[in-house]
Specification:
With 51 residues, this protein is mostly helical. 51% of the residues lie in helices and 0% in strands. The radius of gyration is 16 Å and the shape is elongated. The termini are far apart. 0% of the residues are buried.
Length: 51
């Protein structure tokens, strides 16, 4: 791989990780509109819950 390609790949993974954190935070702080379905959340995500 070229140096520029490796740096671009690293930056892409940083963006993906940030996006995953935002989506998890939103998911923890919302509920499903269906009564019987609540998806399982990743372990440790309860730390992101607002009180």
């Amino acid at each position: 791989m070229k140096k520029g390609t490796n740096k671009a790949c690293t930056e892409l993974w940083k963006v993906i990780a940030s996006l995953a954190m935002v989506i998890t935070t939103i998911s923890v702080n919302t509920t499903c509109m269906f009564e019987y379905y609540q998806p399982k959340l990743p372990q440790g995500s309860e730390k992101l819950r607002r009180e």
